[in-house]
Design goal:
This protein has one helix at residues 84-90; strands at residues 3-7, 10-14, 18-23, 31-37, 47-49, 54-58, 61-65, 70-72, 75-76, 79-80, 96-100, 105-109, 118-124, 129-137, 147-148, 154-158, 164-167. It is mostly beta strands. Strand 7 (61-65) and strand 8 form a beta hairpin.
């Protein structure tokens, strides 16, 4: 077992390659409801709780369990939003996920090890859209899991010096490099 999460009356048991959904609606009478292949996670920080359910990331996609069904957030109305090849080249076995409650957004960090850049994909739960960010977290630093602090801000720590707390900031930055694709 890599990670356990619960939402509504379901317990989600994440293994490396499988997800098991356990129904815990009746006291003392839990049962395995479903086993899903290719829905597991390798890293324990690859899951998070949101206002809408449990979200998680792996090499095959980014998913949301709303208590009833699992949705692949890389698809919208049966249409692929992010190409499989783009997602596969972005994600690693150390991709992690966090939730920004104030904005109702999910952040997927490419890699939490010191061997990678701090690139992200951000999913807006309201508009159901994705945005890619370049080096939005400190490059080449070990990143901890994301947590929500007392003020509902998304924070984590990276290993620069003795450990630097980093709060997610979506304020605009100036740049001369702009690449718009439609």
């Amino acid at each position: 077992i890599v990670k356990l999460e619960h939402y509504s009356d379901r317990l989600l048991q994440f293994k490396k390659n499988k997800l098991q959904i356990i129904n815990i609606s009746q006291y003392g009478s839990e049962f395995l409801e479903e086993t899903l292949t290719h829905k597991g996670v390798i890293h324990p920080a690859a899951t998070c709780k949101t206002d809408f359910g449990i979200a998680w990331v792996n090499r095959q996609g980014c998913y949301l369990f709303d208590g009833q069904k699992i949705s692949n957030l890389l698809e919208k109305k049966g249409r692929q939003i992010i190409k499989e090849s783009d997602w596969l080249s972005f994600t690693t076995d150390n991709s992690i996920i966090g939730y920004v409650p104030k904005k109702r957004q999910i952040i997927v960090l490419k890699d939490c090890t010191a061997t990678s850049v701090g690139d992200i994909y951000l999913f807006d739960m309201v508009t159901q859209s994705w945005v890619k960010g370049d080096s939005k977290f400190t490059d080449s630093q070990i990143q901890t899991n994301f947590v929500t602090d007392w003020n509902s801000d998304l924070v984590n720590i990276h290993t620069s010096a003795t450990g630097t707390i980093e709060k997610w900031d979506d304020a605009a930055d100036t740049s001369t490099l702009v690449d718009i694709k439609t």
